[in-house]
Design a protein that fits this description.
By secondary structure, the chain is an alpha/beta fold. The chain binds 2-acetamido-2-deoxy-beta-D-glucopyranose (12 copies). Keywords: Leucine-rich repeat, Membrane, Repeat, Signal, Transmembrane, Transmembrane helix.
């Protein structure tokens, strides 16, 4: 599907190099570059269409100039023009006869101008463009009436961009003549009402209404629409017309960042594949349907249509059929809602579901057996819920053969099914961070094969590459914990005091990222980790950088919040040529041993993150920025200071002694004088 944006600008940049070589013998305007049939005259301070370009040019780009008016005769010399772009000028007016002879013009980009000024004359000019297919009127401060007038008679228009204007409501008059319209962008207006606005555009396939003020969409019946984006509105209800027998063509529906309380009432037959519902307040209410506690509670809600003799919409609130047709769904994004459970059979209705994103909801249990997830499930994210247990029987787990990303972090998980990970044949990434879990000791692993387990076990899970165990309160990692794995990412940070022993050594050939921040590890031998690219050993009270690091090919090294006083030159020189990013803040470096800083600074390929916040202490324990060596005084190197002090101290002691003796000798007279002065002062009454 062609999308008409400001791509011409890009095109011009891409071809800029050509201007270095004289490609064309045509007389060129000073500020234009010619590329085949395209004239690029962007950023040229132009106020009128340049003359003297080849007569047969087909595309003319005049973006980022100083046009205020496009004049009557200005395009007369270029009758072959099919695309004209005048974005980001200060264009107020297009004169009546400007397009008199532009019969071939198909694409007109007028984005980011001031067309609100003389829209009446401009609209008369546009009317001559009977063959126009794409029109960009975004960012022009247009109101409802202005837009309606400008669009009159544009019967062949297929792509229209009205984003970033001042439209408040659209109705049947707004797009009346746009019978061929396929794509309409209305984002970032102030639209709060839609009244049959799209009925005259039966071919509309893509509609973007994001960032408006719509309070609800009831009676949705645009059967031909493929993509509907109404994210970032104030929508409380989305209700499709239920009495239509046709299959809706809808494939993508974006309702994220609204105020939905209910799962949207989708068309009863559709091809919906991508449904985005993140950041609403969606819950399921099936448990209220046959509630004995509130026998007379409302079960339906009715939407009155005051305007016309159109049917009122009645919705049975607790009727599960109102979820509509979700049988083609591949992606369901419910991030940041209030879902406590899935209604019975809900997951089962999506036999091709591939991604389910439930991050930040209120799920309490997840029974994979009863939900019956699809065999195509690829990503399951149930992080940041209230799960204390996941249940599944062995047969169920083997059906999840496509599950690749499984995110269980930020729950209160205590129980997982036996052999959870070993049954998932494609599992690649498991995130168990911030749960209270343990890793099975080998004997326990045997037991957990037979019952549900309180400890996790992933021995010999061949496909697993990424394992995140941050903040799991781990105490001991058994030596065999990672046996038989080929992990590339292992995250063990935020497990203070964990005993790692030899467990990670079995990963030494494959591991690329290792997170050991805030684990209180001291000296680990990294010398065998030849594939390691990224290492986090922050927050570990380290006094020295482990020696084994310097032979690795590290690209990223996080050393924040340790107790390093220096990095010996040998290590700095060895690390510098390989490192790309290093984190060093939160250490108390010795100001007089900061050679390493100059080494890293002189290496262009290293990025020292927050470089200006790296600090050191001088002899008098004052803090300085390492990057300003002139702010602290240092002698050649740390050791020679010692000798200066040794020399200085006896001399200082000698003079102090002499001063004290002198002082004591003269003290009585001093004392008397001061007493006299004070007491003889005349006092006032
Ligand atoms: C419409 O214009 C806006 C701003 O000029 C732009 O961000 C958006 O991508 C355009 N829409 C389409 C569909 O090209
Ligand atoms: C442009 O042409 C129209 C029609 O011929 C005429 O009415 C109008 O005055 C012209 N505008 C200018 C600025 O010449
Ligand atoms: C709109 O055009 C003005 C120049 O007329 C420019 O400064 C501004 O950045 C443009 N805005 C966008 C969103 O391109
Ligand atoms: C745009 O043109 C109007 C007159 O039509 C003028 O008042 C305004 O200052 C211009 N704005 C810029 C940014 O040049
Ligand atoms: C524009 O459309 C109106 C009806 O919508 C019609 O009366 C008028 O003749 C059309 N004008 C041109 C120039 O096609
Ligand atoms: C909907 O529009 C918003 C704003 O332009 C955009 O960020 C989002 O990606 C769009 N949604 C889809 C599914 O394309
Ligand atoms: C839909 O089909 C049912 C029965 O198949 C029929 O009674 C009903 O009138 C149809 N509705 C429409 C709008 O065609
Ligand atoms: C429910 O409605 C019935 C009949 O309308 C009435 O008899 C009953 O008292 C109502 N129950 C409650 C709890 O209001
Ligand atoms: C819709 O409901 C209102 C209020 O009950 C009623 O006045 C109106 O006649 C109904 N319209 C239709 C078409 O049923
Ligand atoms: C999970 O669902 C299955 C099938 O419905 C059921 O047999 C099993 O008892 C459930 N497990 C739990 C822990 O609820
Ligand atoms: C597994 O998931 C991926 C990604 O969504 C998909 O491309 C692939 O077709 C799925 N495989 C099966 C067997 O469903
Ligand atoms: C797992 O075991 C615990 C304690 O033995 C029990 O409370 C829990 O219900 C069991 N879960 C399953 C799914 O069997």
């Amino acid at each position: 599907m062609p999308v008409h944006r400001l791509t011409p600008i890009l095109l011009c940049l891409l071809h800029m190099w050509r201007t270095l070589t004289p490609v064309s013998s045509h007389p060129q305007h000073r500020r234009c570059q010619l590329i085949q049939q395209t004239a690029c005259c962007n950023n040229g301070q132009l106020t009128s269409v340049p003359e003297g370009l080849p007569e047969n040019i087909e595309e003319l780009q005049l973006n980022y100039n100083l046009f205020e008016t496009l004049q009557n005769a200005s395009l007369l010399s270029y009758p072959s023009l099919t695309a004209l772009s005048l974005a980001c000028n200060n264009l107020s007016k297009i004169e009546l006869n400007t397009f008199q002879d532009s019969k071939l013009l198909k694409s007109l980009n007028l984005a980011n101008n001031s067309l609100y000024n003389s829209y009446e004359e401009t609209s008369l000019a546009l009317r001559k463009l009977s063959g126009l297919i794409a029109l960009d009127l975004s960012e022009n401060k247009l109101t409802d009436e202005m837009a309606a007038l400008l669009l009159q008679n544009l019967t062949s228009l297929e792509y229209l961009n009205l984003s970033g204007n001042l439209l408040l409501r659209v109705d049947e008059a707004s797009f009346r003549d746009l019978h061929q319209l396929k794509e309409l962008d209305l984002q970032r207006n102030l639209i709060f009402e839609i009244d049959n606005a799209f009925d005259s555009s039966p071919k509309l396939q893509r509609l973007n209404l994001a960032f408006n003020y719509l309070p609800c969409l009831t009676d949705f019946h645009m059967i031909q629409l493929e993509v509907l984006n109404v994210s970032h509105n104030f929508i409380e209800w989305f209700i499709s017309r239920q009495d239509l027998n046709d299959t809706f063509q809808l494939e993508t529906l974006d309702l994220s960042d609204n105020k939905l309380l209910f799962f949207p009432f989708l068309p009863s037959q559709s091809n919906l594949r991508y449904l985005y519902l993140s950041h609403n307040a969606i819950k399921f209410y099936e448990h209220l349907a046959d509630n004995d506690m509130f026998p007379n509670s409302t079960k339906t809600v009715e939407f009155y249509n005051f305007n016309k003799e159109i049917n009122n919409v009645t919705a049975q609130l607790w009727d599960e059929n109102l979820h509509g047709d979700i049988s083609s769904l591949e992606t369901l994004d419910l991030i940041g809602n209030s879902v406590e459970y899935f209604p019975k059979g809900f997951i089962q209705k999506m036999p091709t579901l591939s991604r389910l994103q439930m991050h930040t909801n209120c799920l309490r249990t997840l029974n994979l057996t009863s939900e019956q997830f699809s065999r195509s499930l690829y990503e399951l994210d149930v992080s940041n819920n209230e799960l204390s247990q996941i249940s599944a029987d062995k047969a169920t787990l083997t059906t999840l053969g496509n599950l690749t990303y499984f995110n269980l972090s930020l729950n209160g998980l205590k129980w997982v099914p036996m052999g959870l990970f070993s049954s998932l044949q494609s599992i690649r990434s498991v995130d168990l961070s911030y749960n209270n879990i343990d890793i099975c000791l080998s004997e326990e692993a045997e037991i957990s094969m037979h019952t549900n387990s309180t400890c996790m076990n992933w021995k010999n899970v061949m496909s697993l590459r990424q394992l995140y165990l941050k903040g799991c309160n781990l105490k001991i990692i058994p030596n065999t914990a990672f046996a038989g794995l080929s992990l590339t990412h292992l995250e063990l940070s935020d497990n203070p005091g964990v005993t790692i022993h030899q467990s990670i050594q079995s990963l030494s050939t494959t591991l690329q990222h290792l997170g050991l921040g805030n684990t209180h590890i001291q000296d680990i031998d990294f010398s065998h980790f030849q594939s390691l690219k990224s290492l986090n050993i922050s927050k570990n009270f380290l006094l020295h950088l482990p020696h084994s690091l310097q032979n690795l090919n590290l690209k990223v090294l996080d050393l924040r919040d340790n107790r390093l006083s220096t990095i010996p030159s040998g290590q700095a020189n060895a690390l510098a040529p390989k490192l790309q990013t290093i984190f060093l803040t939160g250490n108390q470096f010795n100001c007089c041993q900061t050679e390493w800083f100059r080494t890293f600074e002189a290496t262009n390929t290293i990025h020292m993150v927050e470089q200006s916040a790296i600090t050191c202490k001088d002899l008098f324990l004052r803090t300085h920025r390492v990057e300003n060596p002139q702010s602290f005084l240092c002698f050649d190197d740390g050791e020679s200071i010692f000798w200066y002090i040794l020399l200085f101290v006896p001399v200082f002691l000698f003079f102090t002694g002499v001063s004290i003796i002198v002082l004591l000798t003269f003290k009585p007279t001093l004392l008397q004088k001061s007493i006299k002065k004070k007491c003889l002062k005349p006092t006032s009454y």
